[in-house]
User: What shape does this take?
Amino acid sequence: MAEATAPEHIDLVVFSSLFPSAARPAAGLFIRERMFRVARQRPLVVVSPQPWFPGQALIRRWRPDYRPHAPALEVQQGIRVYHPRFLSFPGVLRGLDGWSMACCSYGLLRRLKQQGARLIDAHFAYPDGEAATRLGRWLELPVTITLRGTEVPHSRNPALRPRLARALRCATRVFAVSDSLRRLALELGTPAERTEVVGNGVDVARFHPVDRHEARVRFGLPADAQVLITVGGLVERKGMHRVIDCLPALLVRHPALHYLVVGSGGPEGDKRAELDAQVARLGLAGRVHFTGAVAPDELKWPLSASDVFVLSTRNEGWANVFLEAMACGLPVVATDVGGNAEVVCRAELGSIVPFGDAAALTAALDSALDKPWDRAAILAYAEANQWDKRVAQLLHAFAPMLAESGAASESIAVPTRK
Assistant: This one.
């Protein structure tokens, strides 16, 4: 798409196929939260390649949510967000996504380099990181890759594991949102000196306690209820069904218990029908409340209506939602996967239970509903984990790469006379 005005100078290209757009407004919000704060100090654009193949529009006739079409260019908060299409066929040919993503983004990245781009900042190692390292090699630009959690299941795939390892070895620097992911990078052969943990943060101006009575009225919850809450996509990985399985036993000791489920289906699927059937089968009608998706600016309301946050997840990098819940004063009960124990790191913040142990999850929720939590301590922990600290760390890491890349570009553009 042609631009109406001359493009501004840029330093960084954020590269991720998972980024919010008009078509997928809830995708990759955690990337935008981080990088748009970086943009206040370093001018950047976003390149978010979108999968496409001939005829996929026909599939949308009976699956309207299948690969929704994003505009070629959006402007979000004054920042350009490009959505180049790359050829991606479903099934076994998805193994070509990294190569196709790089080829179809090359022309755009080349133009952005001419506008001053000196660094490609990729999010997720595959296929985005693989594509970014190819582009970095072709365009002679440094590349950073941030590991966010999908790398764990990918590393168990014999076909993908060597590709992950290669992409990480080719990156100039590898960031990980948790130490568990950093250790995975080391296991895959990434030199330790090129790795760094940069956790996610929380916006306490957006997430903070609001009036509990008003919040409960909004969601039709009794004033005297005890309320568990989960926020996340309605997919198997997030584990709402595992929490629902605990409710009959919990109701024996907590007869006023309700469970608030905030979220909708997404790229990983939609288990709403199965969850509804489970609720009916267990006789929990009126006790489990599905709100659908809630905009980030409004999440403080269901969180403030609740007593305990729970996420029985199968896999996670660093769940932003834990800090968001804590910023609203909630303790967290979560499974011992990924970086969960790094966020819920003290007993005063909540508890961590083994994944797949229904008895342990039930016991932890029972205890959390009984415990007199120090809400001020939970709020203070969230305050200490705001985005400013993370962004400062990133800017410090970016600075030498940008300086070296800029110097290299100048030496090529203006050769020294003898």
Remarks:
- The radius of gyration is 23 Å.
- The domain at 12-201+387-413 is CATH 3.40.50.2000 (Rossmann fold).
- The chain is about 40% helix and 15% strand.
